[in-house]
Automatic annotation (TrEMBL):
GO biological process: RNA 3'-end processing
Pfam families: Lactamase_B_2
Protein name: Metallo-beta-lactamase domain-containing protein
Top-level taxon in the UniProt lineage: Eukaryota
Organism name: Spodoptera exigua
């Protein structure tokens, strides 16, 4: 997806989506990041190559929540490519024992309801309904344009609808697995 005029481009590539792994690549004129790294570092590197990008070009990883299909490659990517990793406190507490050592200086708290200025874009975080510690998703702003990423949510509240209203583009993924709900299984565990 390319929200572009040359000056205000936000380019995105869905590298993977689904219960086997999730990762979204986002690029602006001067920043490149992943939202989630739910596959192995090797697989993410391969998928980046398919869209003509290299992991060495990445600046950071934003994490939505601690389920394995969103964090599997976070630790290895952070260590190997010296990437900063952003997540809220509850997500850090839940994922820290699962991703291996990440240097303290690479760990950043990005709590829900906050806006992070990241190079030439602003990123707004917002909470969603999902079976995780404190799941959050993002709205990306660049100049006059915005892009919303909203996946893994069980319910779209008035607050979420207000937060995502009038974006220029949306990435919305949702699924409802009745059998998993009946069995009481937890997605991403």
């Amino acid at each position: 997806m390319d929200l572009s005029s040359e000056r205000d481009a936000i380019e995105t590539f869905i590298l993977a989506s689904g219960s086997t792994g999730n990762s979204l690549f986002i690029e602006t004129e001067n920043k490149k990041l992943l939202v989630d790294a739910g596959l192995s570092g090797k697989k993410i590197t391969s998928l980046l190559a398919e869209v003509g990008r290299k992991p060495e070009e990445l600046d950071a990883i934003l994490v939505t929540h601690e389920h394995r299909d969103h964090i599997h490659g976070v630790g290895v990517m952070a260590r190997k490519y010296k990437l900063d990793v952003y997540a809220n406190e509850q997500t850090w507490a839940a994922m820290d024992p699962l991703i291996g050592t990440v240097a303290v200086e690479q760990k950043h708290i990005f709590d829900m309801g906050k806006v992070l200025t990241f190079g030439d874009m602003d990123i707004e975080s917002f909470g969603v309904s999902h079976d995780a510690a404190a799941p959050q998703f993002y709205r990306f702003y660049k100049d006059n344009r915005s892009f919303v990423m909203l996946t893994d949510t069980g319910y779209c509240s008035d607050h979420i609808r207000g937060t995502i209203k009038d974006a220029d583009a949306y990435l919305i993924e949702s699924n409802h697995e009745l059998e998993i709900l009946r069995m009481g299984l937890i997605h991403g565990a």
